[in-house]
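Re: weekly structure request thread

Next one in the queue (149 aa):
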Amino acid sequence: MKHFLSVHVTCHCLIAVTDHMHHLFYLRVILPLQLALYTIRTWSMTVLENVNSLVGRSAAPEYLQKLTYLCWNHHKAVRHIDTVRAYTFGSHYFVEVDIVLPADMPLEEAHDIGESLQEKLELLPEIERAFVHLDYEFSHKPEHAQAHS
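Done, posted below.
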């Protein structure tokens, strides 16, 4: 795209330089205007192509299913998967996972399971960062929901 723009500008410059004939004076107005519109169009298309990755869109359902499968099969102690979220962060994903482990599991063991799941998820090429939340039950209200009055 950059090279095409350079060729386009060079052609306009050559036309402007050879524009010594008085009856082609309108080219001095039309050519820069055409170049400006072309530049605006190409930059706008670039912005539109990248806007989805900048606004934090959710991953495709198929990808979320893949993540859920990985979480469920990560360790035999996983009792339930409460939440799996993946949203864009640039060209990669941020992933949030809430898994349920047994209530009587020692903290050290639960921590090791969560940390190894985080590392496994972050090894996937599409994932920038993974956050794994551990809980012992899943029937509660969301922890960080704000009551708005």
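The chain has a mean pLDDT of 84. The first helix runs from residue 2 to 17.
Next request, please.
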